[in-house]
Amino acid sequence: MNTFFLIFIGLPALEIFIMIKIGGQIGAFNTIALIFLTAVIGIFYARLQGIQILKSGMMNIYQNKAPIYELISGASIAFASLLLILPGFFTDSIGFLLLFPFSRKILFKMMIKKEKKIHSNKEKDETIDGEIVNKDKDEL
Question: How far, in Å, CA of 34 to CA of 16, rounded?
Fold first, then answer.
């Protein structure tokens, strides 16, 4: 329930707050123009990054390698494009972070470290001790 509250109520409220603050500094027309400009630049750059990731993925397939990084990057570029289309400065900043390869690699490394930590904790907890009582197969 808290996650849905933050997404559907908190995020628009934060976006409106930031737009009001920026609009008070640079004016309403400039704020609206800036929102459209970030959307256009972001979508253009997302298209370029998408084409580059597609070429890299095809090269990995050609070399018989699994294009795992390219699949994750493609999904993050699609999500970044969605965030850039939505009006607002907070979503645009997150979208641009996901769009640039350098910051995307940092985020992926952080996620992999967190995933390894979770898996190492699960392996310790799921060990079952036992012994074999009868090695012969059951006969019907």
Answer: 14
CA 44, CA 77: separation in Å to the nearest integer?
12
Coil, helix or strand at residue 138: coil
- Please count the other Cβ atoms lying within 10 Å of the Cβ belonging to residue 66: 10
Q: At what angle do helices 101-125 and 68-85 cross, to 10 degrees?
A: 120
**Residue extents of the structural domains in the chain:** 7-117
Per-residue pLDDT tens digits for 67-124: 888 888 888 888 988 888 888 899 999 988 988 888 888 888 888 887 777 766 655 5
CA distances from 117 to 72, 101, 113, 128, 131 (A): 20, 24, 6, 20, 30
Contact between 38 and 93 under an 8 Å Cβ cutoff? The reply is no
